[in-house]
């Protein structure tokens, strides 16, 4: 059996083909139809191409035909991308420059804001206080040294430290914050209080406003002005870190200076001496005078977060004495004590070695051998504390003194006096 694909006609002669009927086309080739006559020969008939005009058949691509190169297309895309990137970058730079981004310190994000000018800052701000005080601050130039000072009166009196003008000659001058300068001469000095007054040969000067050093508190903000390390017009910021810090200072063999100082952590260095320490209202509350160092010579000392200023109430009183009389009065209690402290010992207080007859201490009932433990409530560690605190007050001031005599503790009111010099 076979499906007819490989079929071959038997060798028997074909039967005679009857003539075609002229009556019906249906049966005209019936005798040659292989499906009607199993003995008729079969053949595959391929239809001829249609003669009607219709859509062309989809051409078949020869996989072996040569392909067209994509290099020109890629090159066109690359050039287009570069041109678009360059144009976009140029437009971005133009827009950024016009809006100020990256070109003037304006803030990123949001609408750019113009930086405030100094004139727009509030007078009570730190910048406002600095602007107010700076014209009154001067750089004091003496032979081989530089320090600071501040204008105390419009007619040219300037307060500074005694150790700034020590050894000064007639070539003393001051430099103002606006760059102008003027000659100056020494009016008077008080080595023990470390206050000096000089007179500038220039009038109508902007004088500082004085504050009250007895009304400040630990934690109050302060600004220190001056020329540290010869860097003129410098302002540093800090707080009052302690009050009535008793200091004994001075070069060996020279004058010993005592302070009941205003301690601050505002940065103060060599050259700040004599400059003002001001409160948040721009009022002078102290005269920068002493710094502490971890070691080395005093001339090599630098800021370590501890600086000390003479209270302005004391400095102003001494300066007024110098202007009025050419010398300053020194406040005394009328007794001699051993200078130095007893912080290393368990006992505290200033022992009176001697008491002047009819002096302030003797009048109040104190005697030689008594140990003063407090003055106006301030605890004394040793003789330095008593000397420094007494000099803080003006002659004629009355202070409360607590003292120990033997095992008994007593109190007295002492009216301080000026020395006989």
Automatic annotation (TrEMBL):
SMART domains: PDZ. GO terms for molecular function: serine-type endopeptidase activity. Residues 322-382 form the PDZ domain. SUPFAM superfamilies: PDZ domain-like, Trypsin-like serine proteases. The keyword Acyltransferase does not apply. One of its GO terms (biological process) is proteolysis. Keywords: Hydrolase, Membrane, Protease, Transmembrane, Transmembrane helix. The chain crosses the membrane at residues 73-96. Residues 1-66, 343-363 are annotated as: Disordered. This is Putative serine protease PepD. It comes from Pseudosporangium ferrugineum. The lineage of its organism: Bacteria, Bacillati, Actinomycetota, Actinomycetes, Micromonosporales.
């Amino acid at each position: 059996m076979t499906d007819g694909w490989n079929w071959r006609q038997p060798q028997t002669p074909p039967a005679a083909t009857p003539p075609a009927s002229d009556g019906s086309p249906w049966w005209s080739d019936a005798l040659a139809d292989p499906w009607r006559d199993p003995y008729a020969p079969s053949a595959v008939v391929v239809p001829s191409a249609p003669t009607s005009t219709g859509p062309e058949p989809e051409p078949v691509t020869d996989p072996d035909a040569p392909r067209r190169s994509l290099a020109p297309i890629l090159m066109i895309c690359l050039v287009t991308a570069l041109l678009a990137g360059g144009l976009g970058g140029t437009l971005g730079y133009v827009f950024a420059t016009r809006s100020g981004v990256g070109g003037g310190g304006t803030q990123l994000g949001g609408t750019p804001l113009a930086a405030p000018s100094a004139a727009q800052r509030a007078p009570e701000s730190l910048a406002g206080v600095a602007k107010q005080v700076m014209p009154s601050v001067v750089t004091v130039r003496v032979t081989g040294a530089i320090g600071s000072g501040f204008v105390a009166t419009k007619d040219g009196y300037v307060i500074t430290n005694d150790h700034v003008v020590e050894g000064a000659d007639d070539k003393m001058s001051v430099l103002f914050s606006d760059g102008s300068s003027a000659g100056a001469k020494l009016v008077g000095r008080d080595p023990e209080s470390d206050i000096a007054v000089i007179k500038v040969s220039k009038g109508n000067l902007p004088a500082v406003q004085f504050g009250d050093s007895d009304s400040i508190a630990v934690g109050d903000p302060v600004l220190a002005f001056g020329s540290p390390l010869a860097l003129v017009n410098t302002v540093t910021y800090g707080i009052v870190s302690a009050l009535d810090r008793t200091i004994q200072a001075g070069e060996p063999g020279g004058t010993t200076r005592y302070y009941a100082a205003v301690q601050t952590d505002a940065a103060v260095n060599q050259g700040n001496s004599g400059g003002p320490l001001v409160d948040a209202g721009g009022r002078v509350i102290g005269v920068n005078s002493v710094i502490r160092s971890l070691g080395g010579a005093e001339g090599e000392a630098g800021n370590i977060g501890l600086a000390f200023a003479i209270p302005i109430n004391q400095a102003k009183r001494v300066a007024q004495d110098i202007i009025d009389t050419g010398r300053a009065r020194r406040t005394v209690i009328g007794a001699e004590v051993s200078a130095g402290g007893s912080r290393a010992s368990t006992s505290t207080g200033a022992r009176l070695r001697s008491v002047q007859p009819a002096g302030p201490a003797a009048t109040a009932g104190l005697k030689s051998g008594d140990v003063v433990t407090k003055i106006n409530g301030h605890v004394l560690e040793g003789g330095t504390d008593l000397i420094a605190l007494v000099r803080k007050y003006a002659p004629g001031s009355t202070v409360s003194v607590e003292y120990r005599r033997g095992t008994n503790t007593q109190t007295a009111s002492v009216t301080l006096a000026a020395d006989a010099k």
